[in-house]
Write a structure and sequence with these properties.
3 copies of one chain form a homotrimer.
Chain A: E1 2-10, E2 17-20, H1 22-32, E3 36-43, E4 48-53, H2 57-70, H3 86-95, E5 98-104, E6 107-108, E7 115-120, E8 127-135
Antiparallel strand pairs in A: 1-8, 2-7, 3-5, 3-8, 4-7, 5-6
Chain lengths: 136, 136, 136
């Protein structure tokens, strides 16, 4: 059995940003040497998410607008701590902070339209995603 | 260590449909020979979800109505591509496209009311779910 | 390869309650002897969730209020069965019932603000969470 871990770093220029990371994850899987198993892709910060969905600009704009409606910027209790990112924490629940991808025959076993994304909801600071591969 | 992979195919007759798949997943776990480990059940399409919840018709109707309220059918930017399923992508975020089930003593280690469901949000076409077992 | 399973029991005094369980999960990881792998923390009931987010009382109150807005208490179809917890099932979808945590160098590989929580939406009864460790 093999276990292999790498970290991806992000520092987006905008507060909210959606970054495709399929190729970076696939490269880590290849370096791991695992041919059958799982790769966990998980944000290490609580105002950033990782998800699988379509790589289409219109849809990404739809997601952003929809999330703003579900969790609008407003004066949250959390802001009494000096933070201003309450809505980013809530958006994180909707999108979820992690995905587990199957590896089959040494490659990501994804459907035809599935792409892996990092969703930043409180950017302009360095943040990390852990990518851990486990399998044979 | 063992890894075992199978795929479930779906082609629902309705655009939106909820299909119980606990027995199919349990059968794959049995065929895998794994007695202690995990089984990932993950939709390979981005307008279909996999979840664990109650097998009760009233609740399923509640879920469907609630999702329609959170992500209504409307004219999304995504539809400029020719698609008409923007709301299906958004519902997918709320339900999440995958679950990881524990296997203990060779069987699914679920609570008394936990059932596994495939939730189709844009059906009437062939779609696939990957089921991957990893363990000892 | 090692697999190790324990269960955490909860019986909250309130219907809705958020309980930090990072230390309990870390102790199970230590007892497992796994130095590199995954630990699944998954609610075994369908009206309780497990999530990773900030340990800050204001934010927890924000989450509770926000969930009440997204899935308010009302007369759901599910209540025809004699239950009164329809909203608890729906909140469970938003928060998700499980997390998969990476283990690196024998400890939980979490970011600086990541804490593990059990979220109870229909308490005052005994409920269980399965914690399963898999790795080397």
């Amino acid at each position: 059995m093999r276990a292999h871990t790498e970290y991806l770093w992000f520092e987006t220029s905008k507060r909210e940003e959606y970054v495709r990371i399929t190729d970076e994850v696939a490269a880590i899987v290849e370096r791991s040497g695992v041919v059958d198993g799982f790769v966990l892709v998980s944000a290490m910060h609580i105002t950033a998410a990782v998800y699988v969905n379509d790589w289409e600009g219109g849809l990404i704009a739809d997601i952003q607008e929809w999330l703003e409606g579900l969790a609008p910027k407003k004066n949250y209790r959390h802001h009494r701590t000096g933070e201003d990112n309450g809505e980013a924490h809530l958006k994180n629940f909707v999108i979820h902070h992690q995905v587990l991808l199957p590896i089959t025959d040494g490659t990501l076993d994804l459907g035809p339209w599935q792409q892996v994304f990092y969703a930043e909801f409180d950017g302009r600071r360095r943040k990390r995603v852990v990518v851990k591969v486990l399998g044979v």
